[in-house]
């Protein structure tokens, strides 16, 4: 279970590592994926891209190799740091029982119109290309409100981590971008006062404590209190907002300057300003709240009295959580107060001005939120409100701080999670390496090997040191004779012989790597001096939340070809992503990320006829931009721009196409691509074989049913056409006919070749003798002896590589699912070597043994020319890769779940803290705070006195396996009654043993 804990531990350890570039393991190439055929009914990369890639001798001369203003690529080191940071924050959200949702990047323009006041000019609008008027989401809050209203949801605890887009003035050195992440947690519903609000503050406290960003303070206030202060100080209601904006400056300028502005610019009397000053300079805790409740004036103001009563209740709950030491009730906190209906809060990082000053000063806002109860009513046709409270973590600010600390420390981050490198000390041991690494992969060990037949041992060990790989498993001639593997600890250089059958357990037993602590203890001197505005913007965004509910009528829908992901769908999606990413990481891949939009010229001319499917952004002055069509062209641009010649990378992200959607079949306008690529100059077929092994592992792990991976080679098919007497000029058109053999019988394909394509019947018959063949090594051997093919240079070369590929696949033990199929022809004119496609199979009926294809779920191959399109000198980088048809897989799994009526858990909550009698809220809050602090995923109902039956029913409905019940008798006995929801068995557990008991029970398979 991922607990935030120390960031290094929680995030899987960021370890010292050398640069990936030029690494001997990836000596000389780059990865991108050949995706020239449909996966899930969609072409992954248009054929025109590959065609152009093969005919771009001039390379990318004149092309601007850059990302759009205010955006950036995330290379492996940044992407690894970002992913681990996000994983740590998400782990906290899950610990508090939140379910994930996702909404489209694209929203109808009218959904966003009128929500942001002056900020509306910062919205990215898409070009009107006919049909719906669209814009890119500005934040996650308005889409969430639209989602609640559209689905008539009145009770939900959700989190959402995703990118948002603003045409703001970027300040990238200070963590301000036009494309950036928001990280939101919200609780919606009618609950007893201040319980969910207190939990939001507990979440902020947990995240900032465990990320070890330095000392921090969470300021809290309430709109009602400040409005009451203004009223008793004699301020006209018409001036509340303008005076509020002046008070808001107290964290930047002195009270004297604030007072001068109130009097000189806002027309306030000096006496009224002085009365305000007596209040807004106050900050403290429960003692201050008690004093203000006795204040002769405030105690007579209804709003202030109500707000102070809730603030007192909030602090009582925070005291039970044990976090009031970091909380300050601060009457100067005014940002967004005119847009909230109750409590607001803001977390700031602190630093000492110098050694002689004890007072800490704020150096930056890193989280903010509060209660807003009016936003959903803006979308609901009847203006019905849904009370909401939430928090947003300033993830980009935190990311910038961590980046600067890492840079200042001089340390390098590990960009892979590889546990062991499989190495050989002598030549001619490639087969031994392939067998061993296949065993490790199949056992779930994250392992790498060199893609050279006979690498030097010194280079292999140096690679481990450069990349931070903790172990090397060395197989030499003596080790093979003795049935052992020499396991080397890279840090200590100690070696020990391990029996082959015990190697997996020994690797699992060893530490994952060297601890990485750099930058996590407080390092205030590394913080930028500027105060981040992102949280303030989030608060100010809600300017239209109050007072407008129900006045506007909206079309409550997502744009055509897009969809929201509900918690149930997100749970399925997360399982699939986790399985795929685990496989990619097991094979030593690094993650990268590229912006969702590219310069229009980057995409221009890459997709031929499919260019009409590209979403162009409206020309709002400045750069001309388009949404990415796939992940491959941005990857090629990334490689050329950064002069990278070798990398093993994966990238999972959304792409956009104005295609005709068929959503029931998994075809959308906004959809995920899931790519793995290896780039570099390597010995033939080793990386190609690994790509096929990855496809085999993923489809086996996902248990989608029987499958077959078809393989072919462009050179073999071209050679076959040549020996059959097909003119060069007809290769491509005949290829497209052969491509139809998985959809129609040979007789119809032959008729098309002869009748429509003008091929002679004799030539068609000769082609038919070949393209209906499929098999394995035996077929390859037969074709190598074929009198005609054996004389064709291209075919002979392709068959030689295919034989080598099957020899490696045999060592991997996966040839039972591989078919060398000469009819596989899709995209062959754009590939330079091997291609492959994975299809799911099914039995037509019980009496038919032959399996038939029911859909393509993965595809890829070798293409070596795409990067040269972007390189100024046209330098090529050999590439091979695979793309998983993730949307097709989602659709299959969603349909299966629907058909089975299986109940999908949408949270990971391990235990519900419940009470058996009334007036035990205090005990529930104490207990749940202990569980959260111990890393247990726990929930509590937000009612003071919920019925026990309702609490138990909630567990059964949501799949929570355990209930921790505190009653009067349990409190006397110092125990907690732990109930197994499935069996209904109950046992008393000592309070001090509860955490271990919950861990033990929930860790069982």
TrEMBL record:
<dbReference type="GO" id="GO:0005739">
    <property type="term" value="C:mitochondrion"/>
</dbReference>
<dbReference type="InterPro" id="IPR036621">
    <property type="entry name" value="Anticodon-bd_dom_sf"/>
</dbReference>
<dbReference type="GO" id="GO:0003723">
    <property type="term" value="F:RNA binding"/>
</dbReference>
<dbReference type="InterPro" id="IPR041715">
    <property type="entry name" value="HisRS-like_core"/>
</dbReference>
<dbReference type="InterPro" id="IPR004154">
    <property type="entry name" value="Anticodon-bd"/>
</dbReference>
<keyword id="KW-0436">Ligase</keyword>
<dbReference type="InterPro" id="IPR045864">
    <property type="entry name" value="aa-tRNA-synth_II/BPL/LPL"/>
</dbReference>
<dbReference type="InterPro" id="IPR015807">
    <property type="entry name" value="His-tRNA-ligase"/>
</dbReference>
<keyword id="KW-0067">ATP-binding</keyword>
<dbReference type="GO" id="GO:0042802">
    <property type="term" value="F:identical protein binding"/>
</dbReference>
<feature type="domain" description="Aminoacyl-transfer RNA synthetases class-II family profile">
    <location>
        <begin position="81"/>
        <end position="425"/>
    </location>
</feature>
<dbReference type="GO" id="GO:0006427">
    <property type="term" value="P:histidyl-tRNA aminoacylation"/>
</dbReference>
<dbReference type="Pfam" id="PF13393">
    <property type="entry name" value="tRNA-synt_His"/>
</dbReference>
<dbReference type="GO" id="GO:0005524">
    <property type="term" value="F:ATP binding"/>
</dbReference>
<keyword id="KW-0547">Nucleotide-binding</keyword>
<feature type="region of interest" description="Disordered">
    <location>
        <begin position="53"/>
        <end position="74"/>
    </location>
</feature>
<comment type="similarity">
    <text>Belongs to the class-II aminoacyl-tRNA synthetase family.</text>
</comment>
<dbReference type="GO" id="GO:0005829">
    <property type="term" value="C:cytosol"/>
</dbReference>
<dbReference type="InterPro" id="IPR033656">
    <property type="entry name" value="HisRS_anticodon"/>
</dbReference>
<feature type="domain" description="Aminoacyl-transfer RNA synthetases class-II family profile">
    <location>
        <begin position="561"/>
        <end position="893"/>
    </location>
</feature>
<dbReference type="Pfam" id="PF03129">
    <property type="entry name" value="HGTP_anticodon"/>
</dbReference>
<dbReference type="GO" id="GO:0004821">
    <property type="term" value="F:histidine-tRNA ligase activity"/>
</dbReference>
<dbReference type="InterPro" id="IPR006195">
    <property type="entry name" value="aa-tRNA-synth_II"/>
</dbReference>
<protein>
    <recommendedName>
        <fullName>histidine--tRNA ligase</fullName>
        <ecNumber>6.1.1.21</ecNumber>
    </recommendedName>
</protein>
<dbReference type="GO" id="GO:0032543">
    <property type="term" value="P:mitochondrial translation"/>
</dbReference>
<keyword id="KW-0030">Aminoacyl-tRNA synthetase</keyword>
<keyword id="KW-0648">Protein biosynthesis</keyword>
